[in-house]
Design a protein that fits this description.
Length: about 150
């Protein structure tokens, strides 16, 4: 008597479904880690962009204040700096810092707050910037001393 056995080739349906489930699970986990990493990179870029804009504004104000012959606080959000043959009227209009009425900050950045406070021989500046396409904000407060005494 001959007994023939049939060899199974391939995978059963249960084995195939388990393999598919594990593959989908690992793929979803990898994609979620990748997306989270992209969000962190985007946030870091926006913060870096805000920081570079804040540094640019601060350095510009620093230069003008130190070079200014006369500095006048028009109101808490408007500063007039008299330079040799040129006046700079710095104020906030809508979401922009304006210099003599022209927008000065980057178009991708909103200025939420701008305040000046004139001290004895310096000017304290506070401003808050926000990226237009995100919720990231950055506040900066600095005090810039004038090189010479105010002429007032």
């Amino acid at each position: 008597m001959f007994i023939t056995t049939q060899k199974n080739r391939g995978f059963t349906l249960v084995e195939t479904l388990v393999a598919i489930f594990l593959g989908v699970f690992v793929s979803i986990a990898a994609i979620s880690v990748f997306v989270a990493g992209l969000k962190h990179i985007q946030t870091a870029r926006q913060i870096s962009y805000l920081q570079s804009n804040a540094t640019f504004l601060s350095n510009t104000f620093d230069y003008w204040i130190k070079q200014g012959e006369n500095i006048e606080l028009v109101d808490s959000s408007t500063l007039r700096i008299v330079l040799e043959g040129d006046d700079k009227l710095i104020t906030r209009q809508d979401y922009d810092i304006t210099i003599n009425g022209a927008p000065f900050n980057d178009e991708k950045v909103e200025v939420l707050d701008l305040q000046f406070d004139k001290l004895d021989n310096s000017v304290q500046i506070k401003f808050t910037l926000k990226a237009k396409n995100s919720e990231e904000e950055m506040s900066l407060q600095t005090t810039i001393a004038k090189r010479n005494n105010y002429a007032n």
